[in-house]
Please model this.
Amino acid sequence: MKIDKYTDIICKRFCAFHRADKEGFTCGTYEFVVRNLTIGELGPFTRGITSGSDFSFDGKIKELTCKKCSFMIDGCDFRRGLDSPPYGGYTVVESLMKGGGKISADI
Model:
């Protein structure tokens, strides 16, 4: 289940798929961020994210978040190689792995 403050930061700011009628759905990257960052950590950190993903940590993100994601079961267009962006939390997780937060690439 989504948590309003996290949804406002992760989904509304970074997810091309966000829709109010889909509030009950969470992707693996959203769940990863919720488990690893407090709202107090997430808010200030995401203000520093100025661009989309460059996919520099894609393999690690796939291993940590996508393998456990319920969207993988019935088709994540991004992971299926279709011309689709990843879900919103991907940008946040990638930025954390780049060293912008307490989570680093050596997780």
The mean pLDDT is 85. The two ends are 25 Å apart (CA to CA). Residues 4-100 form one domain.
